[in-house]
Amino acid sequence: DELLGRCWICLRVVVYFFLLAGGTTLWRDWDQWVQRDGTLYTEAQSSSYTMSKLLSFLSKCKIERATPAELGSQLKMSFILEGGQKAVFRPMRYERDHVIEERGNKGADRHNGEIAAFHLARILGMTRVPPVVGRRIDLSELKTISDTSLSATIYRDGATGGMCVYGVCYYCTERDPVCVRGEVLEGSLAIWIPDRHQIKKFKNPCWSKECRRELLRSNQFNSNRILMDITETAVFDFLIGNMDRHHFEMFEENSGSNRILLLDNGKSFGNPFRDDFILLRPLQQLCLFRNSTYQNLLAVSKEPTLTERLSNSLQHDPISPVLSGDNLSAMDRRLNSVLDILEQCIRTPGDNVLL
């Protein structure tokens, strides 16, 4: 019995170090995927076996340390995972069928919106959204590995017996905690951009009615590549219902040919019954669009539809179902609206072109 016990311990140690080595390899793959121009992975990598392994490991690997997320107004936590990889956790605030009635960027972040946005970007070939996966964490265990500032905001509610956390952020307060009935909190976990890439922000000029004029006279957005990134971003935000992209984010290096990153998609999928056409203003005014993305949009307008493709993709996430049926159905309706505008651009004579 003693010998069997020792063998079992040795086996567990071997398995642990095998998984750790595998995780380290995956983190290295992720680091190598990210390019200086802001391409986070290729279309081939987005549907590769390595991506599947990365998402699986991200959903269950050991969390070694937790701290408050460095930036933002919403409750988020920064994790250091086994192997040293950094990731950001957003907690669940709403049930799947909850509807945000207010317009704009109201309400708290939707953790499931982050997950769905990543899967949608993969389907459309927009390789600028970091991998995100659903995950459930034990708040009692998290408290033991959190730094002092975060640990102080994790507690057991005396009335319900469930665990709560309110975190550290601009709007975080003990009057507005996230609480669970037991100890397990659901959320989304997004892998972090490698530290060797510094991110800079530019104010989004397309909240102005004169989007075209503001873009064309700006030094930051005076190339067709960036302008097509902007119209592509507009389509992406319209599809997911995200009215919170007040800044464009790009890598600082490789200035002039870098891509607009599609980060922070938590204010998405809030109301499946409302389509915010103001988000399509850049596309309507510029009529400039990337042909490869246009072909992808045409492809997902046929069988299987975008709704079906997104539903099938999300089935593999650990917290499936990720979206309500109404949010999934909204995809095809919104896609048809985008294609209508693109068709108008193609038919309209003038200098504006579809590239």
Summarize the topology.
Layout (H helix, E strand, L loop, with lengths): L1 H32 L9 H4 L2 H12 L2 E6 L8 E5 L4 E6 L19 H14 L7 E7 H7 L2 H4 L2 E3 L6 E3 L12 E2 L4 E8 L7 E5 L7 H6 L7 H17 L6 E5 L29 H6 L4 H10 L5 H9 L10 H23 L8
Antiparallel strand pairs: 1-2, 2-3, 3-8, 4-8, 5-6, 6-7, 9-10
Please provide a written account of the structure.
A 5-stranded antiparallel beta sheet has the order 1-2-3-8-4. It has a 3-stranded antiparallel beta sheet with strand order 5-6-7, with helices on one face. Helix 4 (about 110-125) crosses helix 11, helix 8 (about 225-240) packs antiparallel against helix 12 and helix 11 (about 305-315) packs across helix 12. The chain is built from 12 helices and 10 strands. The longest helix has about 30 residues, at about 1-35. With about 350 residues, the chain is of the alpha+beta class. Helices cover about 40% and strands about 15% of the residues. Strand 2 (about 75-80) and strand 3 (about 85-90) form a beta hairpin.
Quickly describe the structure:
By secondary structure, the protein is of the alpha+beta class. It is built from twelve helices and ten strands.
Helix content percent band:
40-55%
Please count the beta strands (DSSP E, at least 2 residues each).
Answer: 10
Alpha-beta content class: alpha+beta
Strand content bin: 5-15%
Q: Roughly what is the average pLDDT, rounded to an integer? A: 90
